[in-house]
Design a protein that fits this description.
Elements (H helix, E strand, L loop, with lengths): L8 H12 L4 H8 L3 H22 L3 E2 L2 E11 L8 H5 L3 E10 L5 E7 L3 H14 E2 L2 E6 L3 H10 L3 E10 L14 E8 L12 H13 L14 H18 L9 H4 L9 H5 L5 H6 L1
Parallel strand pairs: 1-5, 2-6, 6-7
Antiparallel strand pairs: 2-3, 3-4, 7-8
């Protein structure tokens, strides 16, 4: 088995390639010959480097339409099955707040945490600090967004909430079957948002991408996260990959290029080289 100290850049690239395409730690270990501890350590180190790079570089971005949503997952077990001791170390339900530019498909910011007004405020304040100019904001019907949007963006914003209406479940449906959306109710919260652009489709598509490209988010498997820190590192690596490396099929460039944050399509070697960057070394 290969260990972290003996991996060269090509071997690191193979490990990262497996991780960003939705493989679990164990599957990545089998595919690459690296030990599970080595795969985990590389994920932790590269995740920390990715988070640092995102925090420093994704700033002063021109965003006209920001779509916000949160995606549910859990660490260790769902909250209903977690003891008080386990909750203290981060086990239980986890929500990832995501803000995406509807035009460039750039994930402007994300936040791993809980649910409620305080988390919404922290998330939107960070989004506001990275955006320049007037922005239109669309979120779902969560009440946490109501005060948080105005508190974060002040009066220089247009906002709307899109509340989905779901039909009653049929007796033939199982508990895992999704409810059928039978309509949407748009509620204007800020000034006068353009009804044509009141949508959360792009951020919800990003949620689907997260479930496909991270084994930790795949439902009904045992690939869920066991540590909250590793969960956050996996998300940092995923968003770095989606912003800078993965070509968007519609844009024909990466979101970072479309947003003016990069002048070329990154490859996995560029991603791995973040481990050697001065910014990461100073933060480590």
């Amino acid at each position: 088995m290969l260990n972290m100290n003996t991996l060269d850049d090509d071997q690191r690239m193979r490990v990262v390639a497996a991780l960003v395409e939705g493989n679990s730690i164990r599957a990545t270990s089998r595919m690459t010959g690296a030990s599970r501890n080595t795969v985990t350590k590389l994920l932790v180190n590269l995740g920390a480097a990715s988070a640092k790079f995102h925090d420093q570089q994704v700033r002063n971005v021109r965003v006209r339409r920001l779509q916000c949503d949160e995606i549910w997952s859990y660490v260790g077990a769902t909250s209903s099955n977690v003891s008080a001791e386990k909750k203290e170390i981060g086990w239980g339900d986890v929500r990832t707040w995501v803000g995406i530019d509807a035009d460039t498909k750039l994930v402007v910011w994300y936040l791993v945490g809980g649910r409620g007004a305080d988390w919404a405020m922290d998330f939107l304040q960070d989004c506001a600090s990275r955006i320049r100019g007037r922005v239109r904001i669309t979120a779902d019907g969560d009440k946490a967004y109501l005060e948080a949007v105005e508190g974060a963006f002040g009066i220089d914003w247009n906002s709307a909430q899109l509340h989905k209406i779901f039909g009653a479940s049929l007796e033939t449906e199982t508990c895992y079957s999704p409810a059928v959306c039978i309509g949407c109710d748009m509620k204007t919260v800020g000034a006068n948002p353009d009804p044509k652009h009141v949508s959360t489709s792009f951020v919800e598509r990003q949620n689907s991408t997260m479930r496909m490209y991270m084994r930790r988010f795949t439902r009904l498997t045992n690939g869920f996260s066991k540590k909250i820190d590793n969960h956050a590192h996996a998300l940092a690596l995923h968003f770095m990959y989606c912003n800078y490396v993965r070509m968007h099929q519609t844009l024909r460039v990466t979101p970072a290029m479309q947003a003016g944050l990069a002048n070329h399509v990154w490859d996995l070697q560029d991603l791995v080289l973040l481990l050697k960057s001065d910014n990461y070394k100073q933060a480590a």
